[in-house]
C-alpha cells in the first residue's frame, strides 16, 4: 500500500516536471499560425520548419558551437587546475589552508551580477572581449571552487597508504598522480566534470555580458529573438528544445554517478 | 514466550531459483525449544543471518512456515512477533540520549513511565552505562554503542525470543567475555529463548546449551557442545569445531575395520555395507604417537601452544594432527600414530554413519 | 585522516590561485575602487569615500529590492526543502524506475536559466500557454504580465519546478547511505513511520540538507535570469530582486558608483551567511568524526 502511495507521489511530481517541457516540445513542432490562432494539445500541422530555420542559419547554429566550445574549455581548465589543489587540501596541512579553502568556497557563492561589469571591463582592457576563452575563464569563478570541493571529497576517500606505497616503489609525484591516483578517483573526476559542464552550460548573465558576436552563446541568441519584434514562437521553442538536448544526453551518460556524486554531500 | 517451529522452510534471494545452489537456505524443519539458549554456528555466508532474519520477520521465506507456539506467524510483521534482535554493527539512534535509546522499544509499546524508568536503569547497570545515561549516543565509541544495542535488545521482558547476530564483533576481547557472561546470566534469570549467531566456536560453545551448526544453507547438526565434539554428524562439524579440527582420512570400511592404503585400523563398532565415498574421522585428542603401533606418520612440524603440543604430520598423503600432552618428548623414534577405536567416526559422503549395532 | 604539515603544498594550489585571482580578485578590486570613487567617464576618478555606501544604505529602492529578495528566498526555501525531502522519501530505491526518476528529475537542472524562463513564459501565457489557457478556461483570472500576485506565483512555481529536484536528489543520496540494519532495528523496536523519519532518516540527512539549504539560499539570493525572462522584473518593480536591480543600475543606467557599493554590500551579506553555514557544517563533520 505504501508502495502505491509512493508511486502516485512520484508520478505526480514527474508530471509536474515534464508537462512544461512537453509544452515546449509540442510548440516547437507547430507553425506560428497554429500557435497564435488556435489552441491545440498536440501539433495538428506537424512541421520541422522551426528546426530547419535554426540548423540552416549560422547566426543560430553558431550559438550552439560557441556554447559547446567555451563549456568544454571551462570544464578542462577547471578540472586541470583543481586536481593538484584538491590533492593538496586532502593530503597536507599548510599555512592558511583552511582560510584558503573557505575563500575558494565563497567564490562559488558570489553573485555573477556583482562580477558582470568588472569582468566586462577587465576582459575588454586585455583584449579578450568576445572570445571563448573569456567566458571559459569567467565561469572558472564558480566552477574551480566547485571542482576543488568535489574532488577533495573523493580524494579523502583514498587511503594515504597508497601514496606512500607508490613513493616507496620509486614513483615520481607526477607519474604516481597520473598513473595511479587519477584512475582511483575516476568517478570523482566524472562527477566534477559533470557539474562544471552543467553550471557553465546553464549560466547566461556572464556569458552574455562578455560576448557580442563571435562567441555569443545559444542562450543569449535566444534572448535577442525574444526582445525582437514579431515573436517567432516556434523557432524560440525549437531553440529551447535544442538547448535541453545536450544536458539530457550528459545526464543519461552519468546517471549512475549522479547519486554517488550527490552522496558525498558536496555539490 | 513460546516454542519456535520452522516447517519446510527454504529461502532464495533469486526471484526464480533454479536448482539447489540458488537457495541461500535449503529446505529444513527445525524446532527451537522455549527458553533454550542456542548458538547458530557456521562460517560466513552459510545462511545464518538469513535464517535469523526469517525468524524475526525481516525477511519473508520463499517457502515454508514459521510458527511461534501454535500460531503461524509467517506473514506477521516483525513488530507483531514481539522479538528483539541485536545486529552485528551497532545501531543506535544518534540524536537520542543513552536513556532514550534504551527506553525507545518500551515507549513505542506504550509502557508505563515509572516502569520504563525502573527497567532502563536496571539494564543500564547491567551493561555498565548507568553513569552516562544522559549523554547523546552520537560520539560514543563503537563498543559503547554496541552495548546500547544489546541493552535495547534486552530491555523488553515479554519478548518471544532474543536474536543476536554476531553482536560482539566490534567489542574488545576482555569486554566480550564479560558481556557473554552477562547474557548467560540473563538467560538463567529470565529464561528467554535466545539465538546467538556467531562464527566463533568458543563463543558458541560457552554461550549455548545447544549449538546449531550450519553449512552451505543447511543445518548439519544440532546438539550439546559434547555431541558436537564426540560425534560430529557431518565432516564440516568435525573440521569446524575443535582446535585443530578433526582428522578426516579416506578409508574403506569392512565390518569393524577401516582400510587405509593397505593398512587396517580397528573401529569401535561394526558397520553394515556403506555406499558412497567413505571416510573416517578422529579427533587429534584421541590420536597417540607410538614407536611402531598403528599407521606410519611423517611428522612435519611441532607447535607448542602452552597446555599441550600439536604435532602436524601426514599419513599416506593426508594431513593428520595429533595432540600430545605437555612434557612428552617427541623423539625420532615416534614413527607411527594410533587412533582410539571407540572414538573413530565413520562418514559416507560427508555424513556420519551410525554403527550397525546402534549404541554409539 | 592525519594530514602532513607541508608548506610546499602551496605550489599545488598555485594554479587555482592564479585562475581565481584573475577571475575573482581583480574584478572585485575594480568594484571596490568604483564604490569609493565618482567618475564622469574617461577613466577620471574622484574620491567619493563612503558617499555611495551612505546613499545605498538609505535608498528606498535598495530596501524594497532587499525586502522582496528575502521574502522570495524564504518562500522558496519553505516550499522546496520540505517538498524535496518528501519526494526523496518517495523515490524508488533501486532498479529501472530509480534510474528513470533520477534522469527525469535531473533534467530541469541542466536547462539553461533563460530557457527555464522561456519554458514558463510559454507555459503560462494566457494566449498560447497550456497553464494560462486552462486557468482562463476555469474562470480564474490569471495574467502574470500585469498582476503582481500572479507574477509572484509564477516566479515561485517556476523556481520550485527548477530546483526542488536538487534538494530531493541530495536528500535521496543521504537516505541511500543509511545501512539496512537501521530500518530493521526500527521494525524490531516497533518504531512508527514518524519515529523512523525523526530519529533515523532526518539525522542522517542533516549534513546534506544543510548543503541543500545553503545552495538554495545562495542561488535564490542571486537569482537573475529566470524572473528576468518571464517578468522582466515587473509588473512595475514587483519582481525586481537584488540581482535584477543591480544589473539595471550598473548596465542599464551605468551608475557605477552606487552599483559597486550595492555589489559590495550584497556580497558581504552572502559572505556572512556562507561563513555561518560553513562553520556549522565543519562542526557537524567533527562531531560525526568522533
TrEMBL record, chain A:
Stretches that traverse the bilayer: 7-25, 68-89, 101-120, 132-155, 176-202, 233-254
PROSITE patterns according to UniProt: ABC_TM1
Pfam families: BPD_transp_1
Residues annotated as domain ABC transmembrane type-1: 64-254
Domain of life: Bacteria
Location relative to the cell: Cell membrane
Membrane topology: Multi-pass membrane protein
Residues of the signal peptide: none
Keyword annotations of the record: Cell membrane, Membrane, Transmembrane, Transmembrane helix, Transport
Family note: Belongs to the binding-protein-dependent transport system permease family.
PANTHER family linked: ABC TRANSPORTER PERMEASE PROTEIN, MALTOSE TRANSPORT SYSTEM PERMEASE-RELATED
Descriptive protein name: ABC transporter permease subunit
Organism: Paragemmobacter ruber
UniProtKB/TrEMBL annotation, chain B:
Record protein name field: ATP-binding cassette domain-containing protein
Organism: Paragemmobacter ruber
Gene3D superfamilies attached to this UniProt entry: 2.40.50.100, P-loop containing nucleotide triphosphate hydrolases
Keyword Membrane: yes
Annotated family: Belongs to the ABC transporter superfamily.
The organism's place on the tree of life at top rank: Bacteria
UniProt keyword annotations, A-Z: ATP-binding, Cell membrane, Membrane, Nucleotide-binding, Transport
Cross-referenced SMART domains: AAA
Record bears the keyword Acetylation: no
GO molecular function, one term: ATP binding
Ranges for domain ABC transporter: 4-241
Pfam families on file: ABC_tran
From TrEMBL, chain C:
Keywords from the named record: Membrane, Transmembrane, Transmembrane helix, Transport
Alphabetized PROSITE patterns for the sequence: ABC_TM1
Stretches assigned to the ABC transmembrane type-1 domain: 66-277
Localisation: Cell membrane
Membrane topology: Multi-pass membrane protein
Segments crossing the lipid bilayer: 12-36, 70-89, 96-123, 151-175, 196-218, 259-280
Alphabetical list of PANTHER family matching this protein: GLUCOSE IMPORT SYSTEM PERMEASE PROTEIN GLCT, TREHALOSE TRANSPORT SYSTEM PERMEASE PROTEIN SUGA
Record-stated family: Belongs to the binding-protein-dependent transport system permease family.
Protein name, per record: ABC transporter permease subunit
Organism for this UniProt entry: Paragemmobacter ruber
